[in-house]
């Protein structure tokens, strides 16, 4: 149990939520040079980068909006009773500084940052950024042994390339991660896939390497509990990465994203599936593709950080 007052979030009873400098969930800001880094067990990190976006940009602004909305997160999970900030030392580790003019340099910077986080023994919880951010994170976490993955999304992100040869976009990160040996495809499950498609190339690849794809029709027919039971069976007790694209949620509840697809779950089920990650050996997680220009109200960002809190509870409880 964490009894160090340094790592407790600021309470709304002591400082109004609209006041003070916002950090993720009102936790202390501990950068990688801070002597207190060695005491951190779970670090929340922003990756404000969207150079992999192929249509509607804006997720580079996601971490800042999510930080602001995360001031509404309180100390206790209302459904489970878990108090994660008393279970482990959590901190806001700040943002990775990308190079918006150089995609490869940005990925190298992200990998270097997360390599340091891993070396410090910290479990990272990330606010993106577009979904290409997951690839350089996996390059830091998925070696020497490939990880299992539970992936919530409306898209597989398994395409070979875009525009006749571009291999690094937000639609390709997990194809690259499997090719680079960062993910074990037989231990990867993708939940919520839907929408119109260019072709079946991504799904054909998934079938060829053993990735389990659960389309949204199957998710709705079976229900969250049954689907999540299968997902946990697929990853077993293996070290697992959780990647959650906010466009998994129906755009009626999460309009602030670049590639929305209708027919997804509502906000309750979006929270429910994250809560059902209990028992999974999570070694890292992300919530990506929140795009503030498409939801200035902050509702999408608040749903995003609420999902992150559920993942944090499971990481702390594990």
Describe the structure.
This is Agmatinase. Belongs to the arginase family. Agmatinase subfamily. Its cofactor is Mn(2+). It holds the Pfam family Arginase. Mn(2+) binds at residues 131, 153, 155, 157, 245, 247. It is a single chain. This protein is of the alpha/beta class and 318 residues long. The mean pLDDT is 97. It contains ten helices and eight strands. Helices cover 31% and strands 16% of the residues. The protein has an eight-stranded parallel beta sheet, sandwiched between helices. The protein has a single domain (5-317), classed as 3-Layer(aba) Sandwich (Arginase, Chain A).
Helices and strands, with pairings:
Blueprint: E1 42-47, H1 62-69, H2 84-87, E2 90-95, H3 103-119, E3 123-128, H4 134-141, E4 147-152, H5 173-179, E5 183-193, H6 201-209, E6 212-215, H7 216-222, H8 224-235, E7 240-245, H9 267-275, E8 282-288, H10 299-317
Parallel strand pairs: 1-2, 1-3, 3-8, 4-5, 4-7, 5-6, 7-8
Helix pairs in contact: 1-10, 3-4, 4-5, 7-8, 9-10
GO molecular function: agmatinase activity; metal ion binding
Keywords: Hydrolase, Manganese, Metal-binding
Binding site for Mn(2+): 131, 153, 155, 157, 245, 247
């Amino acid at each position: 149990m964490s009894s160090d007052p340094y790592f407790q979030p600021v309470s709304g009873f002591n400082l109004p939520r609209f006041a003070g400098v916002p950090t993720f969930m009102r936790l202390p800001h501990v950068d990688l040079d801070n002597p207190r880094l060695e005491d951190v067990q779970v670090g929340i990190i922003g990756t404000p980068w969207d150079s992999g976006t192929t249509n509607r940009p804006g997720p580079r602004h996601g971490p800042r909006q999510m930080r602001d909305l995360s001031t509404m997160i309180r100390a206790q999970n209302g459904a489970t009773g878990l108090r994660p900030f008393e279970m482990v030392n959590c901190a806001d580790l700040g943002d990775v500084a990308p190079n918006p003019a150089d995609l490869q340099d940005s990925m190298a910077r992200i990998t270097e940052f997360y390599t340091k986080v891993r070396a410090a023994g910290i479990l990272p919880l990330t606010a993106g950024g577009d979904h290409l951010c997951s690839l350089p994170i996996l390059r830091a976490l998925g070696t020497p042994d490939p990880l299992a993955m539970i992936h919530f999304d409306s898209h597989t992100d398994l395409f070979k390339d875009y525009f006749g040869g571009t291999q690094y976009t937000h639609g390709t990160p997990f194809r690259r991660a499997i090719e680079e040996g960062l993910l074990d495809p037989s231990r990867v499950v993708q939940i919520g896939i839907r929408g119109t498609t260019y072709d079946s190339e991504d799904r054909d690849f998934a079938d060829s390497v053993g990735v389990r794809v659960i389309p949204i029709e199957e998710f709705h027919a079976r229900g969250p509990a049954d689907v999540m039971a299968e997902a946990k069976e697929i990853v077993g007790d293996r070290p697992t990465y959780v990647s959650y694209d906010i466009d998994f949620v129906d755009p009626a509840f999460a309009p602030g994203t670049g590639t929305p697809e209708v027919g997804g779950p509502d906000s309750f089920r979006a929270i429910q599936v994250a809560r059902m990650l209990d028992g999974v050996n999570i070694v890292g997680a992300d919530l990506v593709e929140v795009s503030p220009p498409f939801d200035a109200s902050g509702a999408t960002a608040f749903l995003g950080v609420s999902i992150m809190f559920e993942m944090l509870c499971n990481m702390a409880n594990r």
